[in-house]
Write a structure and sequence with these properties.
317 residues; alpha/beta; FAD/NAD(P)-binding domain; 2 domains; seven-stranded mixed β-sheet; five-stranded parallel β-sheet; 8 helices; 17 strands; 28% helix; elongated
C-alpha cells in the first residue's frame, strides 16, 4: 500500500472468469503481485457442466472457478470481491482503478477479462430454459442431447451451419426459419441431404410442461416438438469501463487486441470473451495463458529498464 492508502499491484485483472483467473495464476507463479476484481457472475453460470476441458470434463462451472481461485490464491494472488467502476491509465506512472464501493487499486498493467452477456431470443420461457434445454453450443451440449428430437432457431445467418452441425447428433432435427432469413437453394440442398426438416414461421414461446422442454410454439399456434433447442444468441460485450478507457473495438463490439492480447491503449490488455465471443472455457484459458506470458515479458523489460536507469555504485577496482 502506498502513502495514499491505495494498494499497488503489478497487474490488476478486471473479471474473474476462467480467462481472468488463468492470467492471474500464470502471473502469480511468476512472482508478480496480482489482484483479480470480480463480482461473481460468470457468463456460463446457467450451464450445469463444463465440457471439452481435459481433466475437468463434466465439472460444474462454479466448482471449476472455485478451484482455480483456490489455486491462484496459493500463489499470492489477491481476490477482490467487487466491480471496477472506472480506470485511469496515465502516459507514465501507475494507473489506477476505482471500485464501485470506492476502493482504489494501483497497477502497472490492467487486464480486461470482463466477458460478455448473451442476448437470448425474445421468447416466452427463454430465460428459464437458457443453459438447460435452450442451448447455443453443440460442442458443449451435443452429447447430452443426442438422439432426441431437436430444433434450431434460425435467428442468424450462422443458423444454417448450426443446424447442419446439430444434424450429426440426431436424426430428428428441425430448423425453424424466422422471417427474413430464408435459406438459399444451396443451403436448402445441404439441409435436405442431412435430413433437417425446415419449418417457416416466427417463434413465440417455449413450451415446457413439468419443467421439461416439449416444443417451440410459433406465432400462428403451430408447435415444433423438441426436447432441446439450439440458437445463436446475440452478444453484448459493451462495458462502461471499456468505453471509459477508449479501447478500440471490433465490429461485434468486443475489444480489439493484437496477437499478444494488447489493446489499443498502452498497458491495457484483454482476454477471454471480452476479446472474442467464440472462446470456450478451454480456449479462453489457453489464450489467457499465452497473453500472461507476453505480459510478464513486458513487465520484465520494464524492470530491467528501471534498474538500468537507476544510479549505481561504481564497480570496485
Amino acid at each position: 500500500m502506498d502513502d495514499t492508502g491505495t494498494d499497488s499491484y503489478d497487474v490488476v485483472v478486471a473479471g474473474g472468469g476462467i480467462a481472468g483467473l488463468t492470467t492471474a495464476l500464470v502471473l502469480g507463479r511468476g512472482r508478480r503481485r496480482v489482484a483479480v476484481v470480480d463480482a461473481g457472475s460468470p457468463r456460463n453460470s446457467a450451464a450445469g457442466h463444463v465440457h471439452g476441458y481435459p481433466g475437468r470434463e463434466g465439472m460444474p462451472p462454479r466448482d471449476l472457478i472455485a478451484e482455480v481461485r483456490r489455486e491462484a490464491a496459493g500463489y499470492g494472488v489477491q481476490l477482490v470481491r467487487g466491480t471496477v467502476a472506472s480506470a485511469q491509465v496515465p502516459d507514465a506512472g501507475p494507473g489506477e482503478v476505482r471500485l464501485e464501493d470506492g476502493r482504489r487499486l494501483a497497477f502497472r498493467h490492467l487486464v480486461l477479462a470482463t466477458g460478455l452477456r448473451d442476448v437470448i431470443p425474445d421468447l416466452a420461457g427463454a430465460a428459464e430454459r437458457w443453459g438447460r434445454d435452450l442451448l447455443q453450443c453443440p460442442y458443449c451440449h451435443g452429447w447430452e442431447t443426442a438422439d432426441r428430437p431437436l430444433a434450431v432457431l434460425g435467428t442468424a445467418e450462422s443458423s444454417i451451419q448450426q443446424a447442419l452441425l446439430v444434424s450429426t447428433l440426431s436424426d430428428d432435427v428441425t430448423l425453424i426459419v424466422q422471417p427474413g432469413l430464408e435459406p438459399d437453394a444451396e443451403a436448402l440442398d445441404k439441409l435436405q441431404v442431412m435430413g433437417v426438416d425446415v419449418v417457416r414461421g416466427a417463434a413465440r414461446a417455449l413450451k415446457a410442461p413439468n419443467d421439461a422442454l416439449a416444443a417451440v410454439v410459433l406465432e400462428d399456434g403451430r408447435e415444433v416438438p423438441c426436447e432441446a433447442v439450439f440458437c445463436e444468441p446475440g452478444a453484448d460485450a459493451s462495458s462502461a469501463l471499456v468505453e471509459d478507457l477508449g479501447c478500440a473495438l471490433n465490429e461485434d463490439g468486443t475489444i480489439d487486441t493484437n496477437s499478444l492480447g494488447a489493446t489499443s491503449v498502452s498497458r491495457v490488455w484483454a482476454a477471454g470473451n471480452a476479446a472474442d465471443p467464440a472462446r470456450q472455457v478451454v480456449t479462453a484459458a489457453g489464450d489467457a495463458y499465452r497473453m500472461a506470458v507476453s505480459l510478464n515479458a513486458i513487465l520484465l523489460q520494464e524492470d530491467v529498464a528501471e534498474r538500468l536507469a537507476a544510479p549505481r555504485q561504481p564497480a570496485a577496482p
